[in-house]
Amino acid sequence: MASELTKRTSPSEAARILVVDDEPRLVDALASLLNSCGYDVTEAYGGNQACELADTSHYDLALIDLRMPEVDGFAVMAHFENRQPECGIIVISGESSFTAVSRALRRGALDYIRKPYDPEELIATVKGVVGKQTLLKAHEDVQGRLEKSEALHRYIVNSSPDIVFMLDAHGRFCFINSKIESLLGYKPAELCGKHFRHILDDRDVARGTYALNAPDISADNPRTLEIRLKTRGSRRANRYFEVTAFPIAPQSWTHNSNTQGDGSGHKACYYGTARDVTERKEAEAFINFQAYHDLLTRLPNRALFKDRLELAITHARRAKQKLAVMFLDLDRFKVINDTLGHAMGDRLLQSVTQRLEGCLRKGDTLSRFGGDEFTLLLPSIHGKEDVSQIARKLIKTLKAPFQLDEHQVFIGVSIGIAVYPEAGSNMDQLIQNADIAMYHVKARGKDSYRFFSESMSIDSTHRLDLERDLRMALERSELRVFYQPQVCASTNRIVGLEALVRWQHPERGLLYPRDFLGLAEETKLIGQLSEQVLNQACKDVGHWVRSGHSDLRLAVNLSPIEVEHPRFVETLIERINANDFPPGNLEIEITENVIMNDLEQISQKLRELASLNVRIAIDDFGTGYSSLNYIHRLPIHTLKVDQSFVKAIRNGADDACIVNAIVAMAHGLKLQIIAEGVETIKQLEYLRALGCHQIQGFFYGPAQSAADINNLLMQTRLQNAVSG
């Protein structure tokens, strides 16, 4: 008997192991590794061969891959359960989903190792499982001899991988094996005589006491529950155990031997075991956390947010209250991520999360919806002003710069808001409508917030169709470039042409930029659209430049997305060179807001372009920051006075004070001035009197096709020739 026990619990080289995988290379590598550790290894190339070997040979342990053709790992596990239930199973698989892991553990797998595995970790796991299997087998081998051998009984109990205990009628320990010391730090002698509550976690005292006193508990109906047991000393965390206990039938217990500690055998009324399941509970908790949280920011993910929103809607409906859903999208995050790399981008998201969490009320739920998008649930609100206050707070907290190592970066946030029940009565409607409202913020300049309204819903109804049509338009070359003349105020000569895009829609006719440019930016099609427009404009204007209008200037408006891109300068120069267009005849128009979003980076890009003779114009001047500081520091050549100020020229100088100031400032800084939106002779004469250099607007005509502009330039050339 002693030699047999030594054989089964001696070093692991006696263990027989079956390795199952459909990849021969992986099977051979794993078998070689286990053979080098002294194990007796058999190789099975696929599920069919594994099942055949299970019918003819006995194994102590099987290492099984899940994903195999014909017969997968779960089927192999089921076959072993029928033919060799005592064989231990370890799953080694590249499948890491919660469903696969959970299913494998439920099918009886003792451990789960993910491919690619660490050899040392795998060997340690195999050694542990084999050792545990050995102890379990030893426990089973001698269980039938317990009545004949007290010494063997004590050996088995103290060598058990589980805590074994006995309680008296009052719930006090009268026996406990030595496993308690290695798992929880208590010596058996110090616990005997004490109530079992002494080692229960305070949160589980009531459950544990009730389970033992349940009226239906018996030897045939033991009580099993998972509870936390205290470890000795405050530095060690409490551990989870699966406890099984039942009353001892008087006729089955011998009263002639003493138990360990101060108790005696005739006092024992309950028998039980406690199996340490801490690692399993921690694995389950981690898998559950992964299923419902974003690991980067530790915020609830989309699934958990939807669960909480569903509950909040139910509560709001019953209590007749309101709630709000915010959809947050970070402005300029993609530029920072592309420029500084994904690691810096991840750090920025974590910093953003910390700031946003500081703005929340108790009970609010902030989640990362994906990428640089967040959602926020605000339950129990009184009205829109409550939500507006929080939205303003969120925008303000993100305005301060973020420090990423030596880089100081600025971002903003666009927030769409949907209020229940006005903006939706269910979860999907609220999230979708908050998203729609957020895109309306993006289309109107970003870094703000808007509440959803029904008019937005009407717009969004056609959004998918329009997006589809726009993608097809880019493929079918349906975009057209029109040109609006920029005329010298003193000579009436055309000195420049602003390129303006139009879309010749096959069903809706000619569409203007306001109808589709916002959508192009949202769907990231703006780059492709801009490339087509610039290519065509460079060809048209380049032809006119080479045909005798050598000083003709091409003005192009650029999207903030393009300007903020790390390769903006390189891409623009590549397009110019590809069309053989002279850089000195190009003027790019950007808004003040684009410059101020990242003054340092934009300044560097503009200086590079200016060094190549490309002119820089500030579009819609007077509607943004209008800072003399950046105008003085940057290589700016032209200010374009926004048409809203030109329209104010009606009844004299009082209505045009802003135009007066802008023109005077431009003269002082030696900058060119272009007035947009000039429609009347009164406006023209006023601007001429101020000394405005160039005029653009319907007074000289709307934007026209390339053919019409070509005729106009030919007429001008003929007139100049005649007058000459």
Mind explaining what this structure looks like?
- By secondary structure, this protein is α/β, with parallel strands linked by helices.
- The protein has four domains: 2-143, Rossmann fold, CATH 3.40.50; 150-282, PAS domain (Beta-Lactamase); 294-461, Alpha-Beta Plaits, CATH 3.30.70.270; 478-723, EAL domain (TIM Barrel, Alpha-Beta Barrel).
- The protein contains 29 helices and 26 strands.
- Strands 18-19-21-22-23-24-25-26 form an eight-stranded mixed beta barrel, surrounded by five helices. It has a five-stranded parallel sheet with strand order 2-1-3-4-5, sandwiched between helices. A five-stranded antiparallel sheet has the order 7-6-10-9-8, with helices on both faces.
- Helix 28 links the parallel strand 25 (672-675) and strand 26.
- Helix 13 packs antiparallel against helix 14 (342-357).
- The model is unreliable at 1-12 and 255-265 (pLDDT under 50).
Give a concise summary.
This protein has 724 residues and is of the alpha/beta class. It contains 29 helices and 26 strands.
